[in-house]
């Protein structure tokens, strides 16, 4: 009977010490840096676009030429935005703010857009986008962007955790012109689409 020598397991090749190094190579570092740069660029572009999206968006009923209509009411500013298709090619749509009631107590101010220059970078929030179609020309729409500039209106609390406003102190502040700042609203008009 032949005697067989015991088999010794084949010698396994040991990996080179550099191949087990957990540190990434230059190509991997470059790939990660490139992906990070792309993500930062996308975030930088997306943030302003997201800030410009209106909080509400709606389309009104088509309006005939010469028909005066309410586009939006801003109760805080005691203002109603009225619009009208004029039929005038130089100014096809007119938008004007109108006081809602003489006794209305304002909790905000309406500011002319030329003076306010609403912009998200200046703290304004695009509150509403209203589309008003032209009944005579469905391709044309008046786009009314209503902007809001919020302010911090937190009142100081006393030692008991309550807000206390004393008439004499409020009158002194009013006489000195130290009234609390009010939120502001403004509206911009843009025409989209053409007729004829």
Summarize the structure.
The protein has 3 helices and 8 strands; from the N terminus they run αβββββαββαβ. The chain has 196 residues and is an alpha/beta fold. The strands form 2 sheets. The protein has a 5-stranded mixed sheet, with no helix packed on it.
Give a description of the structure.
- It is a single chain.
- This protein has helices at residues 26-52, 113-116, 167-175; strands at 56-59, 69-74, 79-85, 93-99, 109-110, 125-133, 141-149, 184-192.
- The longest helix is centred in the N-terminal third of the chain and has 27 residues, at 26-52.
- Mean pLDDT is 79; it is low at 46-51.
- The protein starts with 25 loop residues before the first helix and ends with a strand.
- The protein has three helices and eight strands, in the order H-E-E-E-E-E-H-E-E-H-E.
- With 196 residues, the chain is of the alpha/beta class.
- The protein has a domain at 56-158 and 166-192.
- A five-stranded mixed beta sheet has the order 1-6-7-8-5, with no helix packed on it. A three-stranded antiparallel beta sheet has the order 2-3-4, with no helix packed on it.
Looking across the biggest beta sheet, what order are the strands in?
1-6-7-8-5
Mean pLDDT: 79
State Rg.
Answer: 33 Å
Order of helices and strands: HEEEEEHEEHE
The structural class is alpha/beta
Q: Major β-sheet, in short?
A: 5 strands, mixed
Residues in β-strands, percent: 25-35%
Number of strands: 8
Give the N-to-C terminal Cα separation: 109 Å
Query: What are the low-pLDDT stretches, counting only 5+ consecutive residues below 50?
Result: 46-51
Quaternary status = single chain
* Cα shape: flat
Number of helices: 3
> What share of the residues lie within helices?
10-25%
């Amino acid at each position: 009977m032949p005697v067989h020598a015991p088999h010794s397991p084949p010698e396994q090749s040991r990996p080179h010490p550099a191949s087990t190094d957990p540190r990434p190579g230059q190509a991997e570092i470059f790939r990660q840096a490139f992906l990070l740069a792309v993500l930062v660029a996308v975030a930088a572009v997306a943030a302003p676009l997201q800030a410009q999206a209106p909080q509400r968006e709606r389309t009104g009923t088509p309006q005939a030429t010469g028909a005066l209509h309410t586009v939006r009411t801003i109760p805080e500013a005691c203002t109603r935005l009225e619009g009208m298709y004029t039929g005038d090619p130089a100014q096809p749509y007119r938008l004007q703010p109108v006081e809602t009631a003489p006794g209305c107590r304002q909790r905000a101010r309406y500011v002319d857009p030329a003076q306010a220059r609403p912009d998200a970078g200046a703290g304004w929030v695009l509150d509403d986008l209203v589309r008003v179609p032209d009944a005579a020309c469905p391709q044309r729409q008046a786009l009314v962007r209503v902007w809001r500039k919020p302010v911090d209106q937190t009142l100081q609390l006393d030692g008991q955790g309550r807000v206390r406003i004393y008439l004499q102190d409020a009158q002194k502040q009013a006489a000195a012109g130290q009234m609390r700042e009010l939120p502001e609203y403004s509206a911009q008009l843009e025409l989209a689409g053409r007729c004829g």
